[in-house]
Fold this protein.
Amino acid sequence: MPRNSPPPAPPRLPGGLQPGVLEENISYLTRVVRSAAQQSAPDHLGKFELLGGQLTAMALIAANEGVSQNDLAQAMQMTKSQMTVLVQDLVVREIVDRTPSATDRRYNALTLTAKGTRLWKRVREGLVAHSESVLSVLEPVERKELVRLLQKLTAAHLGQGAPTADDTPE
């Protein structure tokens, strides 16, 4: 927020309701923003006919070639059985390859197929456009600060602790 800007007003609720304690409640505030993001997602991502979890899985697989199904489940805060269903759908759609490890049968390495890689390039553009749309009410410096704070919370809640100054992007 620019230094000379007044503090933001509390959110205005429909029907003139007062937010009360919810004015600073992280669960409520993130729920409202998430709902808005989910409502606008089809405009940018609907043409791909992928669910949010599938988009997230594709992003993580693209960034981590050969990631294990178990590590992916942990990163996405899903159970192993939920991840199995999600990955199986991507395998059936020929978006992801699942290769059993030669040394450990419990381990499946996940990679995007050629079709999945082509799709990912288009999906990635949609994800960027969607984020830009959701964050458009913020100034660039506010966007960076929000992302930095959310990354810090995410790291802490994934059991990694808060990032150090060396871990945070400039």
User: Anything to note?
Assistant: Residues 114-135 form the longest helix (22 residues). The beta strands are 67-68, 96-100, 108-112.
